[in-house]
Amino acid sequence: MTSAVVLLSGGLDSATVLALARNAGYTCYCLSIDYGQRHRAELDAAARVAQALGAREHRVVSVDLAAFGGSALTDLNIAVPTGGATTGIPITYVPARNTVMLSFALAWAEVLGARHIFFGANAVDYSGYPDCRPEYLAAFSAMANLATRRGVEGRGRLAIHTPLIAMTKGEIIRTGLDLGVDYALTWSCYDPGPRGEACGACDSCRLRLKGFAEAGAADPVVYSNRAAGTAPVGAGS
Predict the structure, then answer these.
(1) Do 177 and 170 form a contact (C-beta atoms < 8 A)?
(2) pLDDT tens digits for 96-122?
(3) Distance from first CA to last CA of the chain, Å, rounded?
(4) For the chain: N or C, fewer Cβ within 10 A?
(5) How confident is the model at residue 9 (pLDDT cuts 50, 70, 90)?
């Protein structure tokens, strides 16, 4: 079977990507990045998802992006916004996060001799992060094929697969449900409550709730009282 590295955050997008890769016949090596994120529950979710969906191996690699801060996800002094859609790039954008993640995936793919990387980037229902755009992903792919032994020696181009790039959240959820993804295992919330419940108010929760509503399915994740009365609309990641 053909091997692939799958970036697995523990959220519903990456879980769906893993299911798609597995369904396409790839042997999946899942990689999660502990980058100092405040919502570390997603790493536990990634482990659950990897096991449930039959990953050959799941590794967690640490890199301290919290040392630089600059994002509500890595700096506890910056509040996670809960007001819904905003203009411009939101404060939940983590500088260079996707570049770091893809670089680690690229390194492991080289060691494994794999030429496929799966990544759950989305350019439809997302926050407008600059490193989720198709232009960025095309540029990274070009760089990867210039910077690797495989690319230099002409032994086949490395491919970065982004099967969700043009899908709505509702379409992603319907796809995952058709493939048997248990979304109760996943985690999306940026600002978990004291008992580990999802807040229902951050951008990521809002987008998740909107997606489940569009898919006509119930979200199995438990939300806190803060979610009461929160309209499941707005941009997320």
Answers:
(1) no
(2) 999 999 999 999 999 999 999 999 999
(3) 32
(4) N
(5) very high
Kindly tell me the sign of the dihedral angle through the C-alpha atoms of 201, 205, 210, 213: negative
pTM, to two decimals: 0.92
Which residue ranges make up each domain of the chain? 3-182
Rounded distance between C-alpha atoms, residue 177 and residue 53, angstroms: 13
Query: For the domain 3-182, what is the CATH code?
Result: 3.40.50.620
Two structure tokens written together for 102: 């893809």
Contacts (Cβ under 8 Å, ≥6 apart) of 87: none
Q: Angle at which helices 169-178 and 12-23 pack, to 10 degrees?
A: 50
Closest CA to 93 of 12, 37, 137, 134: 37
> Helices marked H in 73-202 — which ranges?
97-112, 134-147, 149-153, 169-178
